[in-house]
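User: Is it possible to get a 3D structure for a protein together with its bound compound? The compound here is calcium ion. I've pasted both below.
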Amino acid sequence: MTPLYIRVHLSDNTGIVVEPEGLKPGAFDDTGFTAHEAIPQSHKVALRPIQKGETVLRYGQVIGYANRPIETGFWIREDSLDTPPPPSLDDLPISTAVPASLPPLEGVTFEGFQNSDGSVGTRNILGITTTVQCVAPTVDYAVRRIKTEILPRFPDVEDVVAITHGYGCGVAIDAPGAAIPIRTLKHISTHPNLSGRPLVVSLGCEKLQPRRLFSSALPVLEDRNLIRLQDEYGFAESVAAIMRAAEIRLEELDRRRRTTCSAAHLSVGLQCGGSDAFSGVTCNPAVGFAADLLVRAGATVFFSEVTEVRDAIHLLTPRAINQKVGRALIAEMKWYDNYLANGGADRSANPTPGNKRGGLSNIVEKALGSIAKAGSSAIAGVTTHGERIKEKGLVFAATPASDFICGTQQLVSMNLHVFTTGEGSPYGLALVPVVKVSSRTALAEKWHDLIDIDAGRIATGKATIEQVGWELFRFILDVASGRKKTWTEHWGLHNALVPFNPGPVT
Ligand code: CA
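Assistant: Yes, that's possible. Here is the predicted structure of the complex:
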């Protein structure tokens, strides 16, 4: 029998309604529980009488204080909870509960494209980098012609992608914040799925000059890899120059072949978007289980989204592998606190109307569910905005939580993306496969041609966290090897790249 609700932790005085149609007044189970009003699916029901001022517990953690009495069997509405203050960043325990290493999974491999810089791609794509938005429509035009006129002759290249974005000029390029979008674009341009070598289209007069973008990788910018539109004679010749350069690169890319590579070359970025109250009990724990498997196989797996980690930071700093990593984690939280404060944003800025419709009352509840993606391994490293991850194992890579900005920034380090969703999002990226995991079966059924893995089976008792975790792990290896494609790849859903720019626009 499907349970009426899920209680995550024994101490919780709340349950999450499982029934797709919601709880009806009078619904009861064999524990003596009876519902006293209609409560929608994925919203919270009181399992004990809760007094005014008493803590409301989920995951064994305080998600709020009741601002009115709530009787057993009644709906715990968003407005009946006061949000607790965020954990102080000044006296957090660091490295006090470092998880022991799990037994390694030996010999896990995938079929990947090895690059001369030592990186390994999961796809074989020609990417054309742009230094500034001004050239984007010209490059888009050239890419359309390359795909119809040239690409068919190179069947082992999977796609041609214009790496366009809103950055590059009209910005304070020397301001401290500018370093973030610049290094983000640099690393995306040398992505493993693009063979690690950029092909660049510049305008000529823009602030983000190619030399600034690739200051540490100048040898790759010999003439044939760089086209300046202001040096060309008119539009047709500009397009022809891009097409000639693309053809040379396509010939090289077409010779690439997949070879068997250690799973240590996988780097999987984890993100959630359109979360609901189920996310923290179904898809995110299943992803966390798969994350532990990836760590055991020697891979890199990373979670991000500072504002969705901030309120659960006291549960993460004890897992830092050493003091340095713990302090780096706290420094990323402080940086973002200041960033939000300077923008006049408060903590109510994060949960979306969809999150709240899905039963998430506030950022504390959202964060506690979000960090389940990070599994149970020690946190082996922390990487700041736009930098490429160097460590293996579980890493925190700081990014905003905004789906497309986080995804853009995670591209710096990932060759495969796992995205969990409760409300549903058709989000996808051009440069890496995006594996979609749903929190509810109803979403997986409604969006049967968008969701790759249904973790909602965990709520209804049809599968365990371990079973879905293993299923996801095997699917990741199949997708990384090109044996399977994700739905977003099937449909070609490519969100715009949106580099995070905390610097001033002029
Ligand atoms: Ca997100």
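The first strand starts at residue 5 and ends at 6. Residues 271-273, 305, 401, 403, 406 surround calcium ion (CB under 6 Å).
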